[in-house]
């Protein structure tokens, strides 16, 4: 995984609650066996009309948010089924950070395992960010080391994160990489118990 510490980007405001994993990546796109290529299907039924043309009203189709790395949404983001394809689609689309007041537990954990930083802020803080981002392009600076989100107007928001996941993201480790940190101990143990 790619290490994450500082991310600077225009934020994409997705002012909706209870966005479930089927809305993030619809079931008809789950037949792929690799972890890549899901970004083009992210929020597919919101991004496109039934005839395949872009829905000009949907935020991801707005030029303001092209190449955005930070998605800001409302409560209970990632609820629904436990498909890992949801964070795969978000990351493949280009988002490295998702900010919301709350996340479904499985989705939240899957973000860390796939190199996405999920940040929980208070409802009123998220609503403030959404309001700013909907009125004009609004840039955020994320600093994982300092656990801080800073808006282009200087407003700062603090967040908490489990130290275990923080180290995983800062170092770009997945759980297998983390296991390899103990390779010498594992080898020694195997020699003694051969």
TrEMBL record:
Q: What keywords are annotated for this sequence in UniProt? A: Amino-acid biosynthesis, Branched-chain amino acid biosynthesis, Leucine biosynthesis, Lyase
EC numbers, comma separated: 4.2.1.33
EC class of the enzyme, as a word: lyase
* Annotated catalysed reactions: (2R,3S)-3-isopropylmalate = (2S)-2-isopropylmalate
Q: What CDD domains does UniProt report for this protein, alphabetically?
A: IPMI_Swivel
Alphabetized InterPro entries for the sequence: 3-IsopropMal_deHydase_ssu, Aconitase/3IPM_dehydase_swvl, AconitaseA/IPMdHydase_ssu_swvl, IPMI_Swivel, LeuD
MF term (GO), any: 3-isopropylmalate dehydratase activity
Q: Does the keyword Ribosomal protein apply?
A: no
Q: In which pathway does it act?
A: Amino-acid biosynthesis; L-leucine biosynthesis; L-leucine from 3-methyl-2-oxobutanoate: step 2/4
**Would I find Amino-acid biosynthesis among this entry's keywords?**
yes
Q: Which residues form the Aconitase A/isopropylmalate dehydratase small subunit swivel domain?
A: 2-122
Q: What does this protein do?
A: Catalyzes the isomerization between 2-isopropylmalate and 3-isopropylmalate, via the formation of 2-isopropylmaleate.
**Oligomeric form and interacting partners:** Heterodimer of LeuC and LeuD.
Q: Matching HAMAP family, A to Z?
A: LeuD_type1
Q: What family does the Swiss-Prot or TrEMBL record give for this protein? A: Belongs to the LeuD family. LeuD type 1 subfamily.
Name recorded for this polypeptide: 3-isopropylmalate dehydratase small subunit
Q: What is the lineage of its organism?
A: Bacteria, Bacillati, Bacillota, Bacilli, Bacillales
């Amino acid at each position: 995984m790619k290490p994450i510490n500082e991310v600077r980007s225009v934020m994409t405001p997705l002012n909706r609650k209870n966005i479930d994993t089927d809305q993030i990546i619809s079931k008809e796109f789950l037949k792929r066996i690799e972890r890549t290529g899901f970004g083009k299907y992210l929020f597919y039924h919101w991004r496109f009309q039934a005839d395949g043309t872009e829905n000009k009203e949907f935020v991801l189709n707005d030029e303001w948010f092209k190449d955005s790395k930070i998605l800001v949404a409302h409560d209970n983001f990632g609820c629904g089924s436990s498909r890992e394809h949801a964070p795969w689609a978000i990351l493949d689309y280009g988002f490295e950070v998702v900010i919301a007041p709350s996340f479904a537990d499985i989705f939240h954990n899957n973000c860390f395992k796939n190199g996405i930083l999920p940040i929980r802020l208070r409802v009123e803080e998220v609503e403030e960010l959404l309001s700013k981002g909907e009125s004009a392009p609004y840039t955020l600076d994320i600093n994982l080391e300092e656990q801080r989100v800073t808006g282009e107007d200087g407003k700062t928001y603090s967040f908490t994160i489990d130290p275990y996941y923080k180290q995983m993201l800062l170092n770009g480790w997945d759980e297998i990489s983390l296991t390899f940190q103990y390779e010498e101990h594992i080898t020694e143990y195997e020699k003694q118990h051969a």
